[in-house]
Amino acid sequence: MQKSFKEEKPILYIVSTPIGNLKDITFRAIDILNGVDAILCEDTRTSGVLLNHYQIKKPLISYHEFNKLDQENRILNLLIEGKNLALISDAGTPGISDPGFEIIQKVIEKGYFVVSIPGPSAILAALVSSGLIIQPFTFLGFLPRKQSEMKDLLKGYVKRKETLVVYESPMRVAKTLEVLFQVLGNRKIALSRELTKTFETIIRTTLEDSLAMEHNTKGEYVIIIEGDHVIQTEFDETIENHVKRYMLQGNTEKDSMKLVAKDRNISKSEVYAAIKINKQSS
Fold it and tell me: Are β-strands 85-87 and 38-41 bridged in parallel, bridged antiparallel, or unpaired?
């Protein structure tokens, strides 16, 4: 492990580890993991696979959502004793969608050094391969499980222009895509799973088309969603009258709704909803 002026104080290293392919680890990360006194990890079995692969033999300290409060003092005491520590997650960069950021805050508050060892990130891997606008982007992480809370959160992003990044469990991805479509309307998306692994899959589609797909229930998803790029065009008529105008030209109601959706750059479901509301209020 490289020596520097920083080692005048104990250090907590934030070490990024592979998100799938074990070869995606940096030389510096291996050097740091070999040099610290102990390694904090979410699941000792999962991390053990990586560490055994690179013959890194260090004491492992379990640190996860359910024991973080119990382990906090133990970790701080090790720093007090002058020990250098490394924090890793099950995959990728610690502190993102895991409890790592909490111990990082505590270590900083106590005046110890925190040093990032950059490396793999599922967010960036999914973004750069999505084919969508990369910057600016906003990372939302895992959305709330309750649909009402999920919708309330997403409503704040309906008119935002930046690309959105969402993590989701394979068991909930279908329902989440439905909610995303209901709130954000039809947008281009990229669905990434098993990134860097043998069965890496990236599906570039739209929210509307994704609803008819069967989604693999193995491997967490990274969902990349384009921002609001709808060009607002002023129309002198309501959506309902717009549909009626096309029907008077000989189109079916269904075809008329499709044409209105295209004209206004909105989804067919938005056209249907507008007509339904008008019929209910009349």
Answer: parallel
Nearest-angstrom CA–CA distance, 199 and 36: 34
- The model carries a pTM of 0.77
Tokens of 104: 């990082």
Residue 219 zone, left/alpha/beta (φ > 0; ψ -120 to 50; rest): left
Burial of 111 (0-12, 13-18, 19+ CB in 10 A): exposed
Tell me the residue length of the chain.
282
Question: In this structure, what token pair is assigned to residue 15?
Answer: 């070490």
**Quick count: other Cβ atoms within 10 Å of Cβ 102?**
15
Which letter does DSSP use for residue 199 in this model?
T
Spatial distance between the Cα atoms of 173 and 215, rounded to a whole number of angstroms: 8
Tell me the domains of the chain and their CATH numbers: 5-120 (3.40.1010.10), 123-225 (3.30.950.10), 239-281 (no CATH)
The per-residue pLDDT for range 69-128, each reduced to its tens digit, is 889 999 999 999 999 999 999 999 999 888 889 999 999 999 999 999 999 999 999 999
